UniProtKB/TrEMBL annotation:
Its cofactor is Zn(2+). It comes from candidate division WOR-3 bacterium. This is Transcriptional repressor NrdR. Residues 148-175 are annotated as: Disordered. The keyword Glycosyltransferase does not apply.
Length: 175
């Protein structure tokens, strides 16, 4: 492994431990050339996932792009980066369990919305406004009303953000 500081190809592994929920290995290294320490991660290379856009184009799945969209919705909200990373890890785990080779951007957005709704309602509405392409204030009001009632959005075909119809989701507990 080349040192990121001096580019020497002489390093020693000082420590190895599981990372990212056991899906990667974190290695702490020390460069033999300059003596500086750095961290590397090793993970299994997964089959590439394609995202099918609304216009039919296919793009390679990009974790950083998904994170950026979620972080934008969560801007100035009391949610840690670690919580967001775990949310994206959960989405990726769901897709891996399903052995998916491609997913529509609509479906991927639905997975994000379902998790954002539980994590932060304000971020949920922010993300929904872009994902569902709100055109006017009435759509915001409608989404907020549905959020407050715990119902589903009208433009999702009677489906909530999880993609399930209200009758298919778990009932809300009585308070």
């Amino acid at each position: 492994m080349k040192c990121p500081f001096c580019e020497a190809d002489d390093d020693q592994v000082l420590d190895s431990r599981p990372a990212q929920g056991g899906t990667a290995i974190r290695r702490r290294r020390e460069c033999g050339g300059c003596g500086r320490r750095f961290t590397t991660y090793e993970s299994v290379e997964r089959t590439s996932l394609a995202v099918v856009k609304r216009d039919g184009r296919r793009e390679p799945y990009d974790r950083q792009k998904l994170l950026a969209g979620i972080l934008l919705a969560l801007r100035k909200r009391p949610v840690s980066r670690e919580q967001v990373e775990k949310m994206v890890d959960g989405i990726e785990a769901t897709l891996a369990e399903q052995h998916r080779l491609e997913i529509s951007s609509r479906e991927l957005g639905g997975l994000v919305l379902a998790r954002l709704r539980a994590l932060d309602p304000v971020a949920y509405v922010r993300f929904a406004s872009v994902y569902r392409q709100f055109d006017d204030a009435e759509q915001f009001v409608s989404e907020l009303t549905n959020l407050m009632k715990g119902g589903s959005s009208a433009d999702s075909g009677g489906q909530g953000p999880s993609g399930l119809r209200r009758s298919e989701r778990s009932p809300k507990p009585a308070i």
